[in-house]
Amino acid sequence: MTFSSAPMHYKRLGTSGLKVSQFSFGSWVTFGRQVDTGLAKEQMAAAFEAGVNFFDNAEVYSNGQSEIIMGQAIRDLGWKRHEYIISTKLFWGIHEGVINMKNTLNRKYLMQAIDASLERLGLDFVDLLYCHRPDPETPIEETVYTMSDIVASGKALYWGTSEWSAEEIRAAWEIADKRNLRKPVVEQPQYNLVHRTRVEVEYARLYEDLGIGLTTWSPLASGILTGKYVDGIPEGSRASLSGYDFVTEQASDAALIEKVRAFVALAQEIDMTPAQLALAWTASNPNVSSVILGASSLAQLEENLGAVAALEGLTPELIARVEAVFS
């Protein structure tokens, strides 16, 4: 089955030599909560057929179950290891009440956590390993040395950060540069029409100065930009799930919802779905290497993959109209 009439494009991950599909597929929220192994396999097969080569995960997603589901799906699909890129992220930990194994980037945790993630995934290595959040209690130097050692060991091929400040990313990069260690090559921030400042302003110097690439998450602002919340919160939507109060707050923001109404009308005018337009806008940023898609159903993934074709019709004039809605 083919979901897009346009071919997938591939971009270098920053200035590294690794090429990732412009749209990737992630398991946050869905795998283990809304998506079982059977559906995960269908979704991953459909994404792969559409040209997706990058699949994103994290230790903490569904308390490790997401990694198990993705690993089993890959084995069931019979993919060869050279055919795909897979990532995971470490910081939050999954062992309750255990000192040194929660909310940390210390050496003990990282060295044990990567082994546990690889076991759940059923892999010898991940292509990308992220520090899922900064750790103010562990010296950045300790974290950089450990991540460099993990890459040197072959358990990860590249490493990066997620939701670190520009100052923290630069500090990590400079430590690695001065000590001839493996440098971070990628950051994974939230980026969408509602949340733009970090990617467009705070990180502005990192792309050219350090060669950092971006794999961005929540391109639809947790579903807000699809228009699904303009008439309230549907049963079974992300805003109705426990632990996602931040989505509920956005869905209840009257001023934001009015902007979304205007955005939905604009998408309808140009014969795109709001999701496709929002995804295409995010991918149009030249500093974004890959936009991570999420989906709770095959139909939702099909719609999202239509952003590949939508991106081809995204003119500067249309981009200006989209941004004017959210200015």
Radius of gyration in whole Å, from Cα? Answer: 19 Å
CATH fold name:
TIM Barrel
The mean pLDDT is 93
Structural class: alpha/beta
Tell me roughly what share of residues is in helical segments. Answer: 40-55%
**Physical arrangement of strands within the biggest beta sheet:** 3-4-5-6-7-8-9-10
Residues in β-strands, percent: 5-15%
Please outline the helices and strands.
Elements: E1 10-12, E2 19-21, E3 23-26, H1 37-49, E4 54-56, H2 65-77, E5 85-90, H3 107-121, E6 126-131, H4 140-153, E7 156-161, H5 166-178, E8 186-187, H6 197-202, H7 206-210, E9 213-216, H8 245-251, H9 254-269, H10 274-283, E10 288-293, H11 298-305, H12 307-312, H13 316-325
Structural write-up:
This protein is of the alpha/beta class and 327 residues long. It has one domain: Alpha-Beta Barrel (TIM Barrel), CATH 3.20.20.100. It is built from 13 helices and 10 strands. It has an 8-stranded parallel β-barrel, surrounded by 4 helices.
